[in-house]
Each structure stands twice: as C-alpha cells, then as structure tokens.
Amino acid sequence: MLNVESIQNGVVIDHITAGRGMEIYHLLHLENSRQSVALLRSVRSQKYGNKDLIKIEGTQIPERMDILGYLDNRITLIIIRDGKVEKKYHPVPPKLLKNVVKCKNPRCITSIEPECDHYFKMSPSGRYRCLYCNQEIPVRR
C-alpha cells in the first residue's frame, strides 16, 4: 500500500471521480505550482469504490478552485491548518466559467477568433450559457 504523508497546511481535494484527477490538476494549473502537490489516482474508497485525490501543501490556496463545483459534484474540499481540519465543504457551481469549457457552436465568435476567452454564465435554469452566442451546456455531474 502506498503511504502519502499528511499535510500540515494546505488543501485536500477529496472524492474526485476516479480518472478525473489529472484533468483537474491541469485545469487548476498545478503543474506550474511551486507548492508540493500529490495526485493520487484510483485510491480505494468505502463510499465510492475508487476515487482520485489531490493534496496541495502550503498556505496559498490555488486560484480557480471555484470551478470544482462545476467539474464534479462529489468533490470535497478540506482546508488544513496546523495539521488539523479547519474547514470541509462541497464547492458550489460558480456563476461564471472562464476558459473551463469551449463553446461547441461553430458560428460562435470563440470558434472564429482563437484568442477569444470562453465565458459561460449560469442561467436561472441551472445550465450554463455562452456569453457570446447563448449556446447552452449542462452542469457536469
């Protein structure tokens, strides 16, 4: 069995659907982080069978953590301070997504202009809509 040390200060992204940890790792740009990061894949879980897990050591919480509520509704964020759990919660889907998903509408300006940022805003129906062309996408679950 693989043993990974517990962290004293940082964030644990727990209960990631098995196989999606690397996607989240890249979307949070953790490959560019100067903090210690551990990505564990296919960890045994009593609740889910298997899961992925990311541990980020340090006092700085990575940017874009709000997108986790869109990516996977099973995720639990655990904030660790001085070796103890300070806060544990499930992130909620953000109101605005920037460059998380790409618009699939071939007539959207984002399909024509490659440098254009992809923005999706949460609609009252609980789905995301492209700010440019109104193309709708569902919340991932």
Describe, in plain words, how this protein is organized in 3D.
By secondary structure, the chain is mainly β. The chain folds into two domains: 10-89, Aspartate carbamoyltransferase regulatory subunit, N-terminal domain (Alpha-Beta Plaits, 2-Layer Sandwich), CATH 3.30.70; 96-137, Aspartate carbamoyltransferase regulatory subunit, C-terminal domain (SH3 type barrels, Roll). Helix content is 11%, strand content 35%. It has three helices and nine strands; from the N terminus they run βαββαβββαβββ. Strands 2-3-1-4-5 form a five-stranded antiparallel sheet, covered by helices on one side. A four-stranded antiparallel sheet has the order 6-7-8-9, with no helix packed on it. A hairpin with a 5-residue loop joins β7 (119-122) and β8. The chain is elongated, with a radius of gyration of 17 Å. The mean pLDDT is 88.
Radius of gyration: 17 Å
List the domain count as a whole number.
2
How do the strands line up in the largest sheet? 2-3-1-4-5
* Shape-level CATH architecture of the largest domain: 2-Layer Sandwich
Report the uncertain regions: none
Shape: elongated
SS summary, helix count: 3
Whole-number mean pLDDT: 88
Based on DSSP secondary structure assignment, what is the total number of beta strands?
9
N-to-C order of helices and strands? EHEEHEEEHEEE
Q: What is the structural class?
A: mainly beta
Q: What is the share of helical residues?
A: 10-25%
What's the CATH first level of the largest domain?
A: Alpha Beta
Percent of residues in beta strands: 35-45%
CATH superfamily of the largest domain: Aspartate carbamoyltransferase regulatory subunit, N-terminal domain
Query: Biggest sheet, in brief?
Result: 5 strands, antiparallel
CATH fold name of the largest domain: Alpha-Beta Plaits
How far apart, in Å, are the first and last alpha carbons?
30 Å
Domain Aspartate carbamoyltransferase regulatory subunit C-terminal: 98-137
Protein name: Aspartate carbamoyltransferase regulatory subunit
Keywords: Metal-binding, Pyrimidine biosynthesis, Zinc
InterPro entries: Asp_carbamoyltransf_reg_N (IPR020545), Asp_carbamoylTrfase_reg (IPR002801), Asp_carbamoyltrfase_reg_C (IPR020542), Asp_carbatrfase_reg_C_sf (IPR036792), Asp_carbatrfase_reg_N_sf (IPR036793)
